Amino acid sequence: MLSKKLMVCGALAALLMGCGEEKAAGIDPKIYTDSLFAVMKADRTNYTKLIVQRLGPKGSDSILPVEHWKDVENGAPLPAQMFRAGAEAVRDMTSDFTYSLQSEWPINKQNAPSTEMEKSGLKFIAANPGENFYGEEKLGDTSYFTAVYPDVAVAEACVSCHNEHKDTPRTDFKIGDVMGGVVIRVPL
Predict the structure, then answer these.
(1) How many CA atoms lie within 13 A of 182 on its CB side?
(2) CB atoms within 10 A of CB 17
(3) Which of 57-66, 71-80, 100-109, 149-158 is modeled with the greatest confidence?
(4) Which of 68, 80, 112, 175 has the fewest CB atoms within 10 Å, i.e. is most exposed?
């Protein structure tokens, strides 16, 4: 009886494996990065709408989200700074992936794209609203799956901060515009 069960299980396993073909283990990099981006986008949108928009200068004025927030008694990081803090904390915890916020129009020059893949991805998402960009690149001795997702202005605080900043290279952003991109890189 036991051997009959094993034979059935073995036949079923062979069918599921595609007649002897080996099936790759692990998660598809696109599904992995799409899932990571969903969490990042939700956190970033919620921080912007639920904290900065409601409690900042145009809300109850109980906190002051400003660029130099550490120098102000009731200061709080801007959404982009909060996102960067998360990226730095993740970088200290794992080497399984990295992420960053970049833009073709960065206020902070360190957020400009540095690789050809980043430049191509940011141009693509700006020209194709609502679409993501995926590619593979080799940096040093390591190959990466690189995904670029649109970073869209979700609140008036995003638009006014970027349009009015003294270092902004662009002053015509509107709510719903692609202001930059989230770059997620996974070593292959």
Answers:
(1) 28
(2) 11
(3) 100-109
(4) 68
3-state SS, residue 165:
coil
122 touches 104 (CB < 8 A): yes
C-alpha 174/C-alpha 183 separation (Å) is: 22
Alpha-carbon distances, residue 163 vs 12, 90, 96, 129, 168 (angstroms): 61, 30, 35, 20, 7
Please give the mean pLDDT across all residues of the chain. 85
Burial class (CB in 10 A: 0-12, 13-18, 19+), 76: buried
In Å, how far are 10, 111, 156 from 116, measured between CA atoms?
48, 14, 31
**What span, in angstroms and rounded, lies between the C-alpha atoms of 10 and 12?**
5
**Rounded to 10 degrees, what is the CA torsion of 106, 72, 84, 50?**
-100
More confident residue, 63 or 24: 63
- Which residues, in sequence order, are CB contacts of 148 under 8 Å at separation 6+? 117, 118, 121, 122, 124, 125, 132, 133, 134, 181, 182, 183, 184
